[in-house]
Design brief:
Blueprint: H1 4-44, H2 48-79, H3 83-117, H4 127-153, H5 156-164, H6 166-181, H7 189-221, H8 230-241
Length: 243
């Protein structure tokens, strides 16, 4: 029979493993948001070194993803988690995938910047598009960070706030696209296409945040809320969290 000390040691080791898994996710979202912000800043400042730095650091995001995946497999195989912990571990695996794909979006933005730098087009961003693209980047990164915080802190309000932020994301995206489509921006066909690719990548980053928030809700409530009507879901979850 296991002694009480043995049991406490096992529980503490398990808690440390879960804490390590959460830390990997926090480190990953921090790296991804930094990559996204710097990729956009490279565009805004016509910076070849900054764009290349984003691409060079992409393997660091991949390494965090692999480390988190290995930790997920190890916890499941070694600890046989109970229902709520199993939800956390499985949801974390899905979240790591979302963050890895968000990191790919940052690399895509940086590559579009390098592609434009090889042309004679200067500036890479029309002046009228600089503020809108920075605003869209800020919202996308904010939602990504907030979604992960909802999971880590078990905070339903933060997860719901990500769902509510979708309208802000869409509004910022529409504003940026409007500036790019404006003839006053003077964009050529290829230049215009590259910047639309960037706008789409940023919008998708915000969508990854929404998917992460869905997993946070799953962990907190045990309910799979994918494919649910957002307005009805937000009202119900807010009501549930205020009880």
């Amino acid at each position: 029979m296991r002694t009480t000390d043995d049991h406490h040691h096992i529980v503490r080791a398990y808690d440390l493993e879960l804490a390590h898994l959460r830390r990997l996710v926090v480190d990953m979202v921090s790296a991804v948001t930094q990559q996204t912000q710097e990729a956009v800043e490279a565009l805004a400042t016509n910076s070849d070194p900054l764009a290349r730095a984003v691409i060079d650091r992409d393997p660091e995001v991949d390494a965090l993803s692999l480390a988190a995946d290995e930790e997920v497999f190890r916890v499941i195989a070694k600890r046989q988690p109970t229902a709520i912990d199993l939800r956390l571990v499985l949801a974390t695996a899905r979240i790591v995938g979302e963050l890895e794909r968000a990191g790919d979006k940052a690399k895509r933005i940086a590559r579009q910047g390098l592609k434009l730098l090889e042309t004679d087009a200067r500036p890479l961003l029309p002046e009228r598009a600089v503020q809108p693209i920075r605003a869209l980047t800020e919202i996308a990164c904010e939602l990504l960070t907030q979604a992960v915080s909802g999971l880590i802190e078990g905070d339903l309000h933060k997860a719901v706030a990500v769902f509510q932020g979708t309208s802000r994301l869409s509004g910022a995206s529409e504003q940026l696209r409007g500036r790019l489509f404006d003839p006053a921006s003077g964009l050529s066909g290829d230049h215009f296409a590259s910047l639309l690719t960037v706008a789409h990548a940023l919008e998708r980053t915000g969508n990854h945040a929404n998917n992460i928030a869905e997993q946070a809700v799953y962990v907190i409530t045990g309910e799979d809320v994918r494919f649910r009507n957002r307005e009805l879901l937000i009202d119900r979850l807010l009501s549930q969290s205020d009880r």
